[in-house]
Each structure stands twice: as C-alpha cells, then as structure tokens.
Amino acid sequence: MTAKNTPAVKRRAQPALPPEEEFFNRELSWLAFNERVLQEAEDERVPLIERMRFLGIFSNNLDEFFRVRVAALQRMDALGKRTTTTLGFGVAQTLEVISERVIELQVRYNDAFSALESHLGEEGIDILTEAELDSEQAQVARDYFDQHVRPHLVPILISDVGVPELKDGLVYLTIALEGDVTKRARFALLELPNYLDRFFVLPEKEGRKGLMFLDDVVRVGLPRLFATFQPESVSAYAIKVTRDAEIDMDDDLSKSLFEKMKKGIAKRKHGDYVRFLYDRDMPEELLRFLVRKLGVVEQANVIPGGRYHNRRDLMDFPDLGRPDLVYRRLRPLPHRHLENRRSILDQIAKQDILLHYPYHDFTQLVDLLREAAIDPKVSAIRINLYRVARHSHIINALTSAALNGKSVQVIIELQARFDERNNMNVTRELQEAGIQVIFGVAGLKTHSKLMLITRKEGRNLKQYAHVGTGNFNEATAGVFSDLSLLTADRRIASEVERLFQFFEHNYQRGVYRHLIVSPYSTRRRFAQMIDREIAEAKAGGHAWMILKCNNLTDAGMIRKLYEASQAGVEVTLLVRGACALRAGVKGLSERIQAYSVVGRFLEHARVIAFGAGGKPEFYISSADWMTRNLDRRIEVSVPIYDPALQAEISAMLEFQMRDNVKRRKLDRKQRNRYAVSGEDQPVIEAHKALYAFYERQVKR
Questions:
Q1: pLDDT at 14
Q2: Residue 249 has pLDDT above 60, yes or no
Q3: What is the DSSP letter of 576?
C-alpha cells in the first residue's frame, strides 16, 4: 500500500483539563495581588508612614474589586446555579471562596493596622480616639468639631423615618442613643463628609504628635449634636456599602453618547448593594435593623470590619514632618537627550526617545505639547485620552494649541471606568476651546495611548508620534511606572496617522505592518511570534520570551504559553496583578517562571520580548493579555527598533527578574513567597536600581 493510499491516522484529542488544573481562578489571583500590597504594609523594611499608606491602597483596591468583579459575579449568579466564569469556574463557588478569603485578609489587615499604631506610638506619634484625649485635647477637638465639622452634618433619625439609600463608598456613622429617649429616636445616621480632611492633627504636646480620624472628632461632638434628647450615652458605629458600578445605558438612538453616559452615571448611584461593611462591635439589634431596612439579604455580602471604614484615605496619611518615616524623595530625572535642549521636537527628529515614568519627568511630555502649541510650523495635533488629571496640564496645552490656530483633534473615551464624569467635563472644556472631540469607535473602548504632531519642515510635512503604555495623566505619572516612545520614524508615525483616520472614519481600518492593533491583530500577531519561538525550540535553538503585563487572564493566550513551554521555550512572566496561568506545573508549564514585583511604584508598563532566533524583538503595549484588551478594545503595541532603546528595556526587565527584595514568585498556588537570591549575591531592588540606572545616564 502506497503512502498516497494510506488512510490518515487520527490523533487522539487530549482530554480537557478541569478548570482548577488548567487555570488559577482569576478572582483569587487578584486577591493574591492585593495580598502583595498588604505584604508591603507588613514589611518592616518599608518606612512606617508608607506602610500605613499601603493599607490605604489595599482598602481602595478592595473597594473597586467589589464594585466591579464581585458585582459582575453576582449578576451572573442570579442567572442560575450552574453559571461559570470565562475560565470555567463555578460562579457560586467563586463567590463563596471570595468571601472567605476577604475575611481572612481583613483579619490580617486589622492586625497590621494595630501593629502600625503601636510602632507609630514608639516614634512619638499617637492615633487617638475620643476616649484617649486629655481635657485640653478634648477641648481642641470640640472646637474643631463646632467650627469645621458640625455645619456639614445632617443627622437622620432612622428609627423614625427609616434608612435612606446609602451612597456607594461613603462612611456613615450609625448612632445608638441610650437612656430615657423615645423609640423614634433610638437610632440615627450621619454621613461623614468625604470632602473634609479625614485626619485632624492635634497640637504637639510634650514632644509627641497626635492625630485623630474625622470619625472620632465627630464622636467627640455627638453628645452636643443630640443634646435635645438628653441621652445617657451616645455610641457610634461605622458602616459602608459598596454598590454595583456597572453603567447601564439605554438604546435610544435619538440620544447622543454623551447624554446616555450622563443618564447611566445617575443610575449607578442606585446600583445593587454588593457589600455591607460594619463595625463588628455594633450591637446585634442595630445590625439586624440595618440589614433588614437596607435589604441586604445575602449573608456573604455582610462583612464585619473594624472601627474605621474607607481606610483608603490612609493613602493620604500625613507625613507629620517626619522625613525618616516616608520614602526618600526621588526627583524625576530629565532624559539625557532632552536636558537643557531648546527644542524637544528637534531631538526626536534625531533619534527615538523612550521616557520611563516616574523615573523620567512627565513634564517633558507636557513640554512637548506646549512647544507644539506655539511652534508656527506645527499645523495639527491629534491625541487620544483615556484618563487625565483633574486639573490637567495636557488639556491646558491642547487648549493653547487651539487658541494658536492649530488643528486639534482629541479622541476621548467617555467610558473609562470611574473617570466618566471627569471625561465629560474635559469634553465640555475642549469643545468650548473649539477643539474637535470624537468619542472613539462604537462598541470598542479606545484604550491606546497615541499622539501625533504634524509639522511643516521645508516643503514637506513631518510627523512626530507618541505610543505609550500609560495615560496622559501627570497626577498618576509620579507613581505609575509607564513607558512612552517618542519617534519621528515614518514607519511608525504613518501608521499612527492611519489609526487617527480610523477614529474619524471607522470604515477605513487600514493595514498595519509595524503597529499591532487590537482587536484586529494583537491576538494573531503575538500568537504567531510564540509559534516562531516554538519552531525555534523544536529545531534545537535557544527559544525564549518575556511577558510583562498587569493581568494575564485570557484562556487562549495562556494555552499558547503552555504549548510554548511544552515545546521547550523558556517563558518568563512579570505579572503585577491577576495571573490565571499556573506556572511550574509538571507536564503543563514546567518552563514557565512567573513573578510579580510590587513595591514603591505601581508597575503598569506592558512589555513583550522574544528571542527571535538570536535577534531579539521588543514591543511596548497599552494592552494586557485579557480577553477585553485583545478582542474588545482599541489597543496598540509598538516595536522598539532602536538598539539603544532595546538595551534600556532589556536592563529594566533584568532588574525586575533579579529583584530579591520586592519580587514574589507566582507558583501554582500563588502563595506570594519572596524570590530570595543567595547570600553571596548583591541586594537588588528594581525600583531603586532603575532610578540609579537613569541617574547615571543623565550624568554621562
């Protein structure tokens, strides 16, 4: 029988692995990330006040987790008991495990807060409750209450009128009046004004500094506030609700996206409760009353907490004049090619420039726009915005450009979660300045970080492009670690122009040979590059890849990485947040090492590198490897062609992969164990090492 006539042998399909063997539960992985933040608060190597601020970050993260992820799971759970997540985990079971894990972390959180209080006390700093004040301090607190707090309070007798709808994320004090009071005045409610400072610093006394939570300042004044009832005692217990943050927009075609978004934000105020947090010392009778009146029926949603809620405000814990208890200030550095240069555009024309925040000064990017705004040769500026600062220098520069007669076009994403209202205000401001505003592409969030400046030079038009990993936001650029490529390379700039044409005319998708654009080619192009590494490994070559991102949760790309590992490709992952890939599992992912660096700065840059047969390739990207970023958003990845910039990115990755202070190993159980090097190796903390690296460049 000839080969031609030999029947094809069917390969037996590999049995599908159960979800828990193939993936790590995305929600639990996110909680593991927040545990890494909590570890920073527990780490004695971190300055005391910074540890307190990490507790604030943990709390803020958890609030958003409930508003978004838990709310989404609860909506899915309402569809039926057999619903599963995109990775195949049961929704009901996931909600149960989340509740258990959150309570577990909350216990550690409260222990950490108590320990930090004690340590601050040893440093002469006291966090005082109303019961711990001496007579002089109590009078100072009463005066502050009467003059600055009481005018903002609106007490409601909830035992009489019932409990109003509570606002998402605000702290309320539920008041219990004891003694000869009427039943109608037994319970009351106070909203803690979130526009007042959460911390009141007392006058220094005998060399000790004291401060109080605003909650306790209110407690000092409660007897005066309810004096008309002449209660024997007044007790206050903090509560907070978290609501579903999903925005539902109607399908009325006669309404603009702007109008729909405005209405959707208003509806968000009445989203379902997804968490009810209460002071565990609250009397049982008051707790039952509140739960019944609020309609919080799921016991998993009712979570006991401590005396204070909204500890996200700890992010703004005052430094109290103690520089020894906070991080040493690192002055943002000028880029070596931009320092003392008259024109940033001229420098970009000479060579590609890579800015790395917060090591490099974000002001240099603002200065680029300011220069373009007044340069007579610049004819047009185009930019796409996702999140900007409340009082944005970027917006000021764009307004200046428009007033100077430039053609300015802004692609703005109204649906940037929790920034919708600010983006609507920015839209009005831009339109009032005569700037053309476009609301992205229907059905796709615009998450790319692009800018294009067009300048007439001689008889030709020259284009200067920006492709980045982070937002045009100076407020977050001091903390978020991000990359900006500034280039006049025609290969890149012409394709950035093509994308802006697509924003304006969605039927002109265009062809991109250098940029990689979601949702059209990101999944396919990076899968092809992984296939190339697989082929290299099978041919006996040295095949490798590095993926640095915020989140890795897409099932298809995770399976492709498993395939690479099984073929012999060495894969290194640096994932700050949720990682659904199970690393180091025999027969599945033995050649995959996964790490997470959590420290002083928030790792936000996405970088992908490939061995490429001995000629390494590097990309920076706005996209995480999540299904939404690959398939439902406009995202852009850009190749780094300049060898000098490739070397910079390689150095950054090397610092992070060798970090033996802040790097945790993401093993198959994501236990957040620190990756510690041998005793004979030097201490490497990536964020400090990178600052020193860029500092040396400036001094050359």
A1: 54
A2: no
A3: S
Contacting residues for 70 by C-beta, under 8 A, at least 6 apart: 27, 95, 98, 274, 275
Distance CA 414, CA 258 (A): 8
3-state secondary structure 287-299: HHHHHHHHCCCCH
Q: Inform me whether the pLDDT recorded for 546 exceeds 80.
A: yes
Distances (CA, A) of 627 to 313, 519, 523, 677: 32, 10, 9, 35
517-699: in CATH 3.30.870.10: yes
CATH number of 344-511: 3.30.870.10
The owner of tokens 């705004």 is: 373
Q: Is 342 exposed, middle or buried (0-12, 13-18, 19+ CB in 10 A)?
A: exposed
What pLDDT is stored for residue 180 in this prediction? 79
Collapsed DSSP state (helix, strand, coil) of residue 21:
helix
Per-residue DSSP letter, 186:
S
DSSP secondary structure letter of residue 441? B
Cα dihedral 550, 556, 558, 564 sign: negative
Identify whether 356 is a catalytic site residue: no
Q: CATH class for domain 20-325?
A: alpha beta
The answer for residues whose C-beta is within 8 angstroms of residue 44's C-beta and 6 or more apart is: none
**Hey, where are the domains in the chain?**
20-325, 344-511, 517-699
Give SS3 for 349: helix
Contacts (Cβ under 8 Å, ≥6 apart) of 561 = 530, 547, 571, 573, 581, 589, 592
258 pLDDT exceeds 80?
no
Q: What percent of the chain has pLDDT over 70?
A: 92
DSSP labels, 513-568: SSSEEETTTHHHHHHHHHHHHHHHHHTT---EEEEEES-B--HHHHHHHHHHHHHT
| Rounded CA separation 108/480 (Å) | 26
Alpha carbons 417 and 420: distance in angstroms, whole number: 6
CB 384 within 8 A of CB 409: no
Is 20-325's fold the same as 517-699's? no
CA-based end-to-end distance of the chain: 74
Q: Are strands 353-357 and 378-385 parallel, antiparallel or unpaired?
A: unpaired
Task: Give 594-650 pLDDT, tens digit per residue.
Answer: 999 999 999 999 999 999 999 999 999 999 999 999 999 999 999 999 999 999 999
What is the reported pLDDT for 6? 37
Q: What is the pLDDT of residues 574-606, one digit of tens each?
A: 999 999 999 999 999 999 999 999 999 999 999
Spatial CB neighbours of 235, under 8 Å, sequence gap ≥ 6? 175, 176, 178, 283
Backbone angles phi, psi at 380, to 5 degrees: -150, 145
Length of the chain: 700
pLDDT(462) > 70: yes
> Taking residues 244-272, what's their average pLDDT?
51
Answer yes or no: are the C-beta atoms of 43 and 114 closer than 8 Å: no
Q: Active-site residue among 447, 466, 604, 687?
A: 447
Pair 635, 448: CB distance under 8 Å: yes
Which pLDDT score, from 0 to 100, does residue 271 have? 64
Average pLDDT over residues 58-83: 86
Query: Rounded to the nearest 10 degrees, how much is the dihedral formed by the CA atoms of 335, 339, 345, 350?
Result: -70
